[in-house]
Design a protein that fits this description.
heterodimer, A: 281 residues, alpha/beta, six-stranded mixed beta sheet, 29% helix, B: 370 residues, alpha+beta, six-stranded mixed β-barrel, 12 helices
């Protein structure tokens, strides 16, 4: 595998023109080191999908540049991009996007064949990957016969078949239950830490924070600092910790939206001492 | 990509049936029509090919029998016999007319045969005799069966009643049949004692029909002498000239039906897999890779349709003789090549629209769940 770094430098993506212009991504910069897992989070419509499409050479930025291994891929001609996508990126999608007419093995093999591998070699490599991912009993199953977790593991094998430097995952755990989601997260971590590949994940799933080396918060097309949120134990309102009023009781700090809530709490704290979770939404 | 095309084609059984069935029906139309005309050509030249003659001599510039008339002086029999290389000469009388039974009129080549003719008579007789005497006739078995005739019954030919003494086989086609009466009856009915229609020539063993025909024409400048093969070819050409327009129109209809069905099914199949093609494009497949999948799917459909169409045509050609219809379906190599080429054109054209659709597909849509 080629050791590489993704660099995103002052990237902006605009849609439409003057009066109808929408800035989906606005002057974004970051980089991903080899073996690093970067999680990009943010509300719907924040520009995550646009950013991911640009990282995957599926969309060209209006301004700025994207470098992979020092090469400016955002400046490459359109006809060179398929080859970059095929050999440098591995894609994992929210709804798996397996080809319904092909078996698990064929779904992986076809991507290697597209990259020029001979059928025998492609099949052998796909077989090894699928067995490694615990799918030896499901090789000749069509996607419709596979569970969600199995489909995502096939998609991961497909993403890895051409030995890419960078894995781009769009909501990889969204359609999976928590147990399988956790399993997929473990696999992604293994890919990054065990194989030294960079992984960029776009997700709403907070659990992925556990495996991420870095979490970036995208809002209104720009990266913003992660804000730690708390829930007022009296009124239930979500509030920013840094700006909230607080009170300490039995060694724990509680946060409030207003003085009234804090006064109510201090009068009878036992009635409000529920678990307060950090919300990042 | 061929594997993907194959799997895509076979995954939806309904689409497969429509696609292959549609192509098969269209190609069946073209194939069976060609086979019918090839069969008619074969049937219509059956008399010439089975006459036993090596050369046909006819009036100058008359080169076939169908819709033609030939008249030669009877003295030419002796002249022809004297040409080096000629072994035997049989004069026949010929007219295209009707075999009438009650109200039923069956178009037929009427052949007037000399007594003990060695050529020109029925080549296979299923019942009775093949060489009619005065007042007797031999007609095709299927015509007799259709009219409810049997040996000893009367038929009307050239306005005269004849007693049926033989039933011949293989002498009927979709358009007519061959009926045999005696030379003497034919002459008396037509009123010309000193003329015959054609001279059938048997050549000496070891001699060439082409050479002997050339010698005949050299010695008898008032006649046309053609080998049986050439004479039959001319006959076929007349049939072909008469049917070309019909065949062309029906071929066009078959082509358009095939094209419409294939174009629609390949287009809808591609439309149904638009997202999957988008995924492949996002993963790095080039447009050419995807075009190959679409074209392969179209070609697979057409190949299956062609095979199915051919199978049904062969099946029809086997079944039809059992249905009592004087129809022969003859699948020729020329027809197979023609339909093969038509199939390839259909496959190529039907893949055109889906290819345009794929070319315009935005791979970034896969991240938007489209």
């Amino acid at each position: 595998m080629t050791s590489s770094t993704l660099r995103v430098i002052n990237v902006t993506k605009r849609y439409g023109n003057s009066t109808t212009e929408v800035i989906a991504v606005n002057d974004v910069s970051f980089s991903v080191a080899p073996g690093e897992i970067v999680l990009i989070m943010g509300p719907s419509g924040s520009g995550k999908t646009t950013l991911l499409s640009m990282l995957g050479a599926l969309l060209k930025p209006t301004e700025g540049e994207i470098q992979l291994n020092g090469d400016v891929i955002s400046a490459l001609a359109e006809n060179r991009l398929p080859d970059i996508r095929l050999r440098q990126f591995g894609f994992i999608f929210q709804d798996f996007n397996l080809l319904s007419a092909l078996t698990a093995l064929e779904n992986v093999t076809i991507v290697a064949e597209l990259a020029g591998s001979k059928n025998g070699a492609a099949r052998k490599k796909a077989l090894a990957l699928l067995i490694d991912l615990g799918l030896e009993e499901r090789l000749n199953f069509l996607p419709e016969k596979l569970s969600g977790g199995e489909k995502q593991r096939v998609a991961i094998a497909r993403a890895l078949i051409n030995d890419p430097a960078l894995i781009l995952a769009d909501e990889p755990t969204a359609n999976l239950d928590s147990k399988i989601g956790h399993e997929i997260m473990r696999l992604l971590r293994g890919i990054a830490k065990g194989q030294g590949r960079s992984v960029v994940i776009v997700s709403h799933d907070l659990r992925i924070k556990d495996i991420a080396d870095r979490v970036l918060w995208l809002e209104d097309g720009q990266f913003k600092e992660m804000v730690e949120m708390a829930t007022d134990p009296v009124c239930g309102m979500k509030i920013e910790k840094e700006r909230a009023l607080s009170a300490k009781w039995e060694g724990r700090i509680y946060y409030f939206c207003a003085k009234g809530c804090r006064d109510e709490f201090t009068q009878e704290p036992e009635g409000f001492t529920r678990e307060i979770k950090v919300i990042v939404e | 990509m061929t594997r993907l095309a194959f799997r895509n084609l076979f995954q939806s059984k309904t689409r497969l049936v429509i696609s292959v069935g549609g192509a098969a029906l269209a190609l069946l139309l073209i194939l069976s029509l060609d086979a019918i005309f090839a069969g008619v050509e074969k049937q219509i030249t059956a008399y010439i090919n089975h006459s036993g003659a090596d050369i046909f001599i006819s009036q100058k510039n008359v080169r076939n029998m169908h819709m033609a008339s030939s008249s030669l002086p009877i003295t030419f029999v002796k002249t022809a016999a004297s040409v080096p290389g000629v072994d035997q000469v049989t004069p026949i009388m010929y007219l295209a007319n009707m075999v009438v039974v009650g109200n039923e009129r069956n178009p037929a080549y009427i052949i007037g045969l000399p007594e003990n003719a060695v050529m020109g008579g029925p080549w296979q007789v299923s019942v009775g005799r093949g060489n009619p005497a005065t007042g007797e006739a031999v007609i095709d078995r299927s015509v007799a069966e259709k009219s409810g005739l049997s040996l000893g019954d009367n038929v009307e030919i050239l306005g005269m009643k004849f007693k049926l003494v033989g039933l011949s086989e293989g002498t009927a086609s979709l358009v007519n049949s061959v009926a045999f009466i005696s030379f003497a009856d034919f002459v008396s009915l037509r009123g010309s004692q000193d003329a015959v229609s054609f001279l059938l020539i048997k050549i000496m063993p070891g001699d060439s029909p082409v050479d002997v025909a050339a010698r005949i024409e050299a010695m008898m400048p008032q006649v046309t002498a053609e080998t049986t093969v050439d004479f039959a070819d001319q006959e076929k050409r007349v049939v072909k000239d008469m049917s070309t327009d019909v065949v062309t129109i029906m071929n066009m209809i078959g082509f358009l039906i095939g094209l419409a069905v294939m174009a629609l099914t390949v287009y809808t199949a591609t439309l149904a897999r638009r997202k999957e093609f988008g995924v492949l494009k996002a993963l790095g497949a080039k447009n050419n890779d995807l075009y190959r999948a679409v074209v392969a799917q179209a070609f697979l459909s057409v190949i299956l349709g062609f095979s199915t169409g051919l199978l049904f045509t062969l099946l029809l050609s086997w079944i039809i003789p059992y249905l009592g219809v004087n129809l022969l379906l003859e699948v020729s190599i020329t027809s197979l090549i023609k339909v093969g080429v038509v199939s390839l054109v259909i496959a190529s054209l039907s893949a055109f629209l889906p290819i345009r659709q794929i070319a315009g597909l935005d791979p970034a849509l896969v991240f938007r769940g489209k």
